[in-house]
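Review form for a predicted model. The reviewer records the input and the model, then writes brief findings.
Reviewer: anonymous (R2)
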Amino acid sequence: MDIAQNFESIRRRMAEACARAKRNPADVTLLAVTKGQSARAIEAAIECGQLLFGENKVQEAKAKIPLCPGRARWHMIGHLQSNKCRDAVHLFSMIESVDSLDLAREIDRMADKSAKTVPILVEVNLAGESSKFGYKAEALLAELKEINALNKIEVHGLMTVPPFSPTPERSRSYFQQLSALKTKCEEILGAPLPHLSMGMSGDFEIAIEEGATIVRVGTALFGPRVYAAKNTAD
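Model under review:
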């Protein structure tokens, strides 16, 4: 895969989507999803100017991040188990996948131990899919103040993963719902939430048109994920 060519194509498509929505391209951040990708591929993306990356699993991030240039920044974008919070607080500059009050409390506890403050996004499961994590909208609105009251985390916005569809346009209603939910959250908190993390390789342009500030793109940049072959003798 030509990562440099893919990067330029993605940036162009992002700019075109911003133009359609009358948005400033500087207001939308590309997060490169590195699940299953090598440190060499990540370094190639960094050489293109990409500095923000996202990992789905703490263990993979723990092994990979030390191999990558130090100027890269990392977000946790996958489901986070409570027993991995200590490592997550150390590894990531933002945790985008906070899906419960209990998890928020554990992140807060570990952040306090590390003497740092952790920006978070709250993950919302708008379609109620049993295969995915995330708050239901009503539950989030009920618990948002408790999450926001924690001392060592900062709520910066919302994140969602809509149901998979080969038709990108079908994601639009979910992005609209998340944008509307952010407005309700802002009313509850009495303060703006700067981020909507939504849109992936197949639908990031639709997400930008509906207000995304972070788009999470993996295969469109790196190509198919590469996994180590299993040892058949095991």
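Findings: Residues 3-21 form the longest helix (19 residues).
Further findings: The radius of gyration is 17 Å.
Recommendation: see findings above.
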